[in-house]
Amino acid sequence: MSDTSVLNPIVLKQFLLDSGVDVAGDLDVELISGGKSNLTFGVSDGVSKWVVRRPPTGGLTPSAHDMNREWAVTKGLQGTAVPVAATVAIDTDGSVLGAPCTVVEFVDGQVIRTREDVEVFDDNAVEANVGALVDTLAALHAVDYNAVGLGEFGRPDGFAARQVKLWARQWGIVKTRELADIERLITALNDRLPTSARNGIVHGDFRCDNTIVAADDPGKVLAVVDWEMSTLGDTLTDVALMCVYRRPVFDRVLGFSAAWTSDRYPSADDLASRYAEVAGVDLGDWPFYLGLANLKLGVIAEGIAHRALAGAGDSENAKAAEVTGEFIAEGLRQVAG
């Protein structure tokens, strides 16, 4: 089954009409991205454009592809300092479109995804992009989540401890072999859980390619996207993950040379320092957060391989498991330091 065949344009058109959306004609559906995370489709009636997202077709892990979560936070952030696409419609349980789906307005800009994408910029443009990314993440974490109707979006108290348990549990679901260092890292993280936290809305997957920037200005973020991992919790987990994504080994998870791993961007330490200055916060037990981020990425790499072996996604994705051990080893190094 092709990725585009899982989204029926005739059914989608009727769904939009039933949701009060003006549709000028038949819909053209094009896959934008898919395989490793949620499937993303560009949809057009020749006049208007939308983006539809739905989970992958197989090999799912609990909570990792929650479209209702993505919808709730995107809707809640409308009108805040955090740029997001305008929300249009949602099929909450998949009873209409065959799987839970969100529909938002198309944001016309550029995504800095690959190494080639970032190489076209001069140093000033890269610096402007970094500044905009850090400012946007700090703005997200500063949002009063109760004031925007997201008070029930998550349970921020005890978030770090639950994250360790979550990713340990995910490992049990997606592992393709045994890896003793996983247990050592989980134990080490549990032994140094933070005693306090600055809670806020956590994106859960923040880096340059999960934003859309202006076509003529990489220093202007038009929308933050890919909210399926978002929740309420310790905002330093977001910062640490953004920093650990900078590791070159992350290219082997993605299967291509990513913009965010390019040495054109600042180091992880520099990014963390910039965020702390902009947000006006202390980084607390920073090695714990780096250890947790490495655990998360190690399990995510394994999950990509798991889905590939289950027949959902390119068989080449099975190689992602090769880097799981590298993330776990780095996590152990951080928490032992």
Describe it for me?
The protein is of the alpha+beta class and 337 residues long. The chain has eleven helices and nine strands. The protein has helices at 9-18, 67-76, 115-119, 123-142, 159-174, 180-191, 236-244, 250-254, 268-279, 286-309, 324-336, and strands spanning 28-33, 39-44, 49-54, 87-91, 101-105, 199-202, 211-214, 217-224, 231-234. The strands form three sheets. A five-stranded antiparallel sheet has the order 1-2-3-5-4, with helices on one face. The protein has a two-stranded antiparallel sheet with strand order 6-9. It starts with 8 loop residues before the first helix and ends with a helix. 47% of the residues are buried. Residues 59-64 have low confidence and may be disordered.
CATH fold-level name of the largest domain: Aminoglycoside 3'-phosphotransferase, Chain: A, domain 2
N-to-C CA distance: 48 Å
List segments where confidence is low: pLDDT < 50 over at least 5 consecutive residues.
59-64
CATH architecture type of the largest domain: Alpha-Beta Complex
The rough form would be described as globular
Fraction of residues in β-strands: 5-15%
Fourth-tier CATH superfamily name of the largest domain: Aminoglycoside phosphotransferase (APH), C-terminal lobe
Return Rg in Å: 19 Å
Class by SSE composition: alpha+beta
Number of domains: 2
CATH level-1 class of the largest domain:
Alpha Beta
Q: pLDDT average, as an integer?
A: 91
Output the keywords.
337 residues, alpha+beta, Phosphorylase Kinase, domain 1, Aminoglycoside 3'-phosphotransferase, Chain: A, domain 2, 5-stranded antiparallel sheet, two-stranded antiparallel ribbon, 9 strands, 14% strand
